[in-house]
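Changelog note: in this version the structure field was regenerated for every chain. One regenerated record is shown below for reference.
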Amino acid sequence: MSRRAGWLALRWIAAMVFLFASGCTAAHRRNSAWHAAEPGAVPRRTVESPAPSDAGEVPPAAGAPALRGATATVEPLAAARARGDATLEDCFRAAVQRNERIGRAEEDYRQAVLLKTTALGTVLPRVTLENNYNLQNKVTLPNPAGVAFSFEEKKNQLLLHLQQPIFAGFRDANFFGFARNSIDAFRNGLEDSRRLLYASVAQVFYSALQIEGAVKTLQDSVEVERERFREIQARHEAGLARKTEVLLVESQLASDESRLTRAGNDFKVARDQLSFLMATPLDLPLRDDVTVPESPSGAPPEAPTTAGLDDLIREARENRSDLRQREKAVEAARYQVSLARGEYYPTVDLDAEAILERQHYSDFSQETDWTAQINFSFPLFDGGRIRANVATARSNWFVASRDWPNRSRASAFQRRAS
């Protein structure tokens, strides 16, 4: 190959490497921005209310604050310790940061986002720099003219190899559809995990507050009962009270002390449950900072009509994250069936090589600068593998299709019950 052609090939390689590096840098920055913008991503701290976007942001669950950005080294209850008490928002922030279920849902979502990159890689060209060194035994062939031909046993070539898929049985389009619906499904799954975690934290948080109030009430009652018991004992010693009155007050005091002990144990259990959900010890007093707006008229709300109930059921089916997750899972499973069926189709791809250097090749091969070929492949027999893959994908689609109506009916039942 000529020196000029070699330099041109090297310049083309440099341009391709530069474009590839630029694309990788842009993709890395974009993915970093996506992950940093995810509510619930680790690390995170700032509380705000984001709106969903195409960059993979997850809208917060109803009633749950959205968490973004921060430093993982910051203690989750640092702000609460500086303030001296822990609110529901503080507990939920710590739970989102360290809860294993949220972390697993986040990783599932990140893996789904990477599926889109994998799908893109199936349609883009693949360029590799290859060096082939061939070593074989020296072969000498006799010549009728009496001169023997000897073939060199060592050969080396440096080439640039390009592979470009042209047609793959529509598997690339189905792969994109599968990746897109998987991303939506796991995004809704992450939102649903946060919603369920918020409900669990709120339930235990207010249960602890309720039990704490009961403990304080019982402590006051026990103090009053003890003072009354001392008073009735003094009256009994002075002959102003009967023994039965003393026994009655003593029995009431023992009953209140027993209730106080039981309430104290329940309070410790509630705080331990809250610490379990937060995955961090909780040694701060709890404070309720949620303001519930009062009804303007002060009258109790009217019972919903049948039409209003139907609207609520329709709204739940459209907005509940668990239903949206299963709906997208059904779509992803449907694309998987088409993806598996695409293996029945033929495949066409381009295979090209730019030869940069060759040593110890024939004169014809030495003067060859590039080669290209179109490959056509049609599956005739593979032992039933494709059929098994299609059957498995259909089975997964059937399971996902049956799960969504079941969850939808459960959602409607919960709406009617509430």
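Spot check on this record: Residues 171-237 form the longest helix (67 residues). Confidence is low (pLDDT under 50) at residues 34-73.
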